Amino acid sequence: METTYFSLGSKAAFNKALRHFFKVNEAVEEVDSRVNIADYINELIDDEEIHQDQILPIIGSVIRDKFAYSNRSINIPSNITNFDKIINETVKWTALDIVAVYFTPDGHRSVINPKGLDSWERVRELSADQLIVLYVKDLKEDDKSVETEAIKTLEDLIFGKDVFSNKKFVDNTVAEKPKDVVAQEKVVASQPVKKKRNITPKYGVQVSNELFHNGNVEAWKKIVESYHTKYPELEVHIMFEGEVINDINSLFKWGKVKHGDTIFFQVSGENILGVSKLQKYLYEGASPRFEQFLKLGVGRVLNLF
Q1: Which structural domain range is residue 60 located in?
Q2: Buried (b) or exposed (e) across 103-134, using 16+ Cβ within 10 A?
Q3: Statement to judge: residues 228 and 164 lie in one domain
Q4: Contact by Cβ (8 Å): 207, 285
Q5: Could you give the CA distance from residue 175 to residue 56 in angstroms, rounded to a whole number?
Q6: Number of other residues whose CB lies within 10 A of the CB of residue 83
């Protein structure tokens, strides 16, 4: 039996899908007018007009299917925090539109305009072994061989290699922006800048207890609760063996985490604070000294931060 449309069977679901379709149509218009879709999507996310789970459907339907950008998936070779080389090179590629979709360790997707510093500041770090998908479109001649070569060159940049760009990456017919456009850009630049959602690098916490057992888990829950109480706008993301841990209780099941293992965490939000204290307390909570965090009664929040 055909079930394709079952999800649209309620008014709420139908309206939700309709709003998404409107955003897809707007994205098509933006890309048609030479706006980088990463900049467009990030603006929508900032304005809370779309959610994380809409990023891949928009990318897939617009730049992959509609505009047929060439694409390639690679794994990040090592942690990258300096993107100057990538920006300084790709900003010269005026004949190409470039988009990257990065799959973060906490399970989110970040869409990046490699030519723009703002996009990279959102990510802050590309983590080793994480997936990134590169998309390229030749705006001048729609030459697939040029797109393929550009993807390979961008991949080399991500791998830290020196590159020599094909002259076809550059469109010399791109005219200087009219003065009224430049003036308008100056007005926009003078306006207050919206706060961006950032994420820290991964911090490691080594387990020094003989086993990360239920007491350690309860200590960590108390510590994270205290952090959230102090900084309610920030999120703590926990990872172990490459897996995002949504339920801290799962860390002690079946003796999963042992002495000497390392648990990683990241913090995301706009104005990130208290990370060094958080790391210190989590280390204590993973040690034989975890009991100090369990002394308060049930329902009471530790005042650690």
Answers
A1: 10-190
A2: bbbbebbbbbbbbbeebbebbbbbbeebebbb
A3: no
A4: no
A5: 33
A6: 22
pLDDT tens per residue, range 24-68:
888 888 888 888 999 989 888 877 788 888 899 999 999 999 999
Q: Looking at the DSSP assignment, which residues form a beta bridge with residue 133?
A: 73, 101
For the chain, the C-alpha Rg in angstroms (whole number) is: 23
**Is 87 within the bounds of a domain?**
yes
Q: Over the stretch 107-160, which tens digit does the pLDDT of each residue have?
A: 788 999 999 888 888 888 899 999 999 999 999 888 999 999 999 999 999 999
Pick the closest to residue 151 from 72, 92, 85, 90 (CA basis): 72
Question: Which has the closest alpha carbon to 100: 110, 88, 90?
Answer: 110
| Chain centroid, CA 242 distance in Å | 16
Claim to verify: residue 170 and residue 82 sit in the same structural domain: yes
- Total structural domains within the chain: 2
Reference 136, options 112, 160, 118; nearest CA is 112
3-state secondary structure of 256: coil
- For every residue of 14-64, DSSP letters joined together read HHHHHHHHHHHHHHHHHHHTT--HHHHHHHHHHTTSS-GGGHHHHHIIIII
Helix (H, G, I), strand (E, B) or coil at 303: coil
